[in-house]
Every structure is written in C-alpha cells, then in structure tokens.
Design a protein that fits this description.
With 218 residues, this protein is of the alpha/beta class. It is 39% helix and 15% strand. The longest helix has 31 residues. 34% of the residues are buried.
Length: 218
C-alpha cells in the first residue's frame, strides 16, 4: 500500500481549500486501490513551529528523519517523513501560506538539513504538490510568482519539485450582503465561480491522479 499525506493548512472545513483537497484525494484514490490518502487538518491540532532546540543537529542524533519536539504533530511528522507523496494545501493570507502551514513545513524539513555542508537527507524524495486558494485575480499572478517560488523551493530542495494547483478569485463567503466587502462585488464573484470553479476542482482531481500514477510507476 502506498500512502499520500495531505497537509491541509486551511481553517474552514467546508470552503475552497477543503473542496480542492477533497477533489485531489478523490483523484488519487481513483488511480488504484493501492493508494491510501490520509488528510490532516492542521487547524485541528495544537503545535508550534520550530523551537530551535537543535536536537536534530546534535552529533549522532536519532532525530535526523523527524522533529524531536513533542506536541500535536509529532506523529504526523513521522508519517509525512516516510510517505510516498505529500500535498500541501493552503489559502493565501497577505500573499503567503497560512502560519500553520509554514510552521508544519519548518518542523518537517529542518531535520533533513545538514549543518555541516548544507546537504539534504530526506528519508524519501517523494512527489509533492501545492494547492493554493486565493481571493487574488489573474492580474496579481506576476506579483505572487516570487512568493510561490519561495514556498515551493523548500519542497524542491528536500523532496521533488512540486506540482502547483491554484484556485483564483475564490468566493470567500456565501452571502456578501452581510459583510463589508465592497471591493469584491458579489455578482462578479458569482460569475467567475460559475465559469471557473468546476475547472479548478477538475485540475485538483487530475493532480491527485497524476501523483498517484507517478508513485505507482516509480
């Protein structure tokens, strides 16, 4: 059995990131019964980012595959370290992934970095992907490209270059009339969603299927 771990850094259980993650998982499972998908919702867990204990850098440390610090993601970090594929999913806040997603990535990747010669030693160099959901529209993509590259560079360094899946101009709330959001006309949001949302979900489904296929043929 091959396992894909989904690291879901979105706070809302029924909105855009959750729907994109669900589509990815369905795509992965559609490839084969040999693919297991485990969905981790970070907002359900109590944990910190790297606390700089440096236990992973002690000579002859036993913590070079996974973080030594014990909290709500300790066991998940172990599972992710030995998974066959990893999906990171997050909405964009101020042009970046959520703090929960970033904290998880710190804890996952830092033990794999040597402070002798800056080499990397992940237990397995597995396929990765990132799902981004955002209020930003197409015109902002050039401005966000450097952020995407910075975020994804860590996965590329330690694992494999990630596939990028995006949902732009997402609907943030179900009833815009209840909120002070005049900069985002509800009708424009509705029209964009009708034209693009199903395609976004399909792209996520396809990415899940592709990751599973890649794992199975490795």
């Amino acid at each position: 059995m091959k396992r894909i771990i989904i690291i879901d850094g979105g706070p809302r259980k029924t909105m855009n990131t959750a729907a994109m993650v669900d589509a990815f998982a369905k795509g992965a499972r559609s490839a084969s019964k040999e693919i297991e998908v485990k969905h981790i919702r970070l907002y359900n867990l109590d944990y910190k980012g790297c606390v700089s204990c440096l236990a992973c850098k002690v000579k002859d440390s036993k913590y070079t595959s996974f973080c030594a610090y014990n909290d709500g993601i300790t066991e998940i970090l172990k599972e992710a370290a030995f998974a066959d594929g990893i999906l990171f999913a997050s909405p964009l806040y101020f042009g970046d992934i959520t703090a929960q997603t970033r904290a998880f990535m710190e804890r996952l990747f830092f033990p794999w970095l040597s402070y002798n010669e800056y080499s990397t030693h992940a237990p397995k160099r597995v396929p990765t992907a990132f799902i981004y959901t955002m209020n930003a529209t197409e015109e902002y993509m050039p401005q966000l490209e450097s952020a995407f590259e910075r975020i994804e560079s860590l996965a590329t360094m330690f694992l494999q270059k990630p596939e990028r899946i995006m949902a732009l101009n997402t609907t943030q709330v179900k009833d815009y009339s209840r909120y002070d959001m005049a900069a985002f006309p509800a009708e424009g949001k509705r029209m964009w969603r009708e034209a693009h949302w199903e395609k976004d979900l399909q792209s996520s489904f396809d990415a899940g299927r592709q990751m599973a296929d890649k794992i199975l043929t490795a």
